[in-house]
Sequence to fold (368 residues):
Amino acid sequence: METARISTWQFFILALGYLLGTSFLFRIGGLISIAKQDAWIIPLWAGVAGVLLSLIWIKLANYYPGNSIIQICIQVAGKRLGGFIALLYIGYFIHLSSLITRNLGDFMKINLMPRTPITVFHVMFLLIICYAVIKGIETISRSTEFLFPLVTVTFLFIFFIALYEWNWDRFQGMFRMNIWTTMKETRSLFGFPFMESFLLVMLFPYVRSRIKVSFILANVVTALLLSVGVFFTIGVLGVTRASHETYSLFVIVQEMHIGTFFEHLESTIALILLIVVFIKLSITYYCAVSGLCQLFQVNNRSWIAISLVLFISGLSLGFDNILENIVFNREYYFEYMLLFAAIFPLLFLFLTWMKKSREKRKVVGSQT
Fold:
């Protein structure tokens, strides 16, 4: 395993950028189309579920301090079964990397460069990510720490300027949703981003202190900011229009102007998108490479990182268009995530409890 150390603040920024980044840009329109004026409530209860899920992983990590998910799998279930489960996790890390890459390619091709082949965006960005992963998690965390203020200032600028278009009348008809039906239809938000937070357990061995607080706080802040983002979008665009926009935040920025000086600011939000995608994709890519190195005991991760560039780029072409990606996310992603984020850790906790109770019985039997 890499002998790197990251601070508590760096881990919090990594976790927040990982959870909030792409979801802030890609999830808002879909939530509004389902829950209408009440869509801002959904991230709040999804965040509660995310915190509960975080507590499960924290409990598991307490039993195996200093170990990643891959190492926990092998320690709990043995080399064969545990190795197979670890391989499933690595497959998920790779698949998630391909989904993020495809989100980037779709955004760039639809909004900015429609004549450029989508593979060009994939390969060029993955090469940058590959270089960052080869340099290590400390480089990724320092880059994120440097870029985070730029992202924050840009979003605050957009927020205050767009308030000029705010209209409270767009919230008429609030608190009319059927809670159970809405939770069922928006279950994909539990999967993306909150159930994806378990991937950050791969970084636990590198964090110096206060891992639990940072991990839970990142989930809480993500839920609050995502709720604010949905509330802001409804107030500026309205329910009808926001429901029909895939990239609602991009539309807000596209139409923003101050006199004749500040115009066509969509390139700014595109730059911010590249930064947040860099944060999230670098973490998932790093976890995939690190997981393969740990499972197969490879010391040099460079060739594995380079090999995954073309593999992830090819895998990201699994959807014919963005609509198939949206349908997969809305209809199947929660069930897909359930295995990795909830079922496996609960199984590991049960097996660990069985081992601990068996050891206690042996100790008591030897003393008597």
Notes: The two ends are 42 Å apart (CA to CA). The chain has a mean pLDDT of 89. The domain at 8-367 is CATH 1.20.1740.10 (Amino acid/polyamine transporter I).
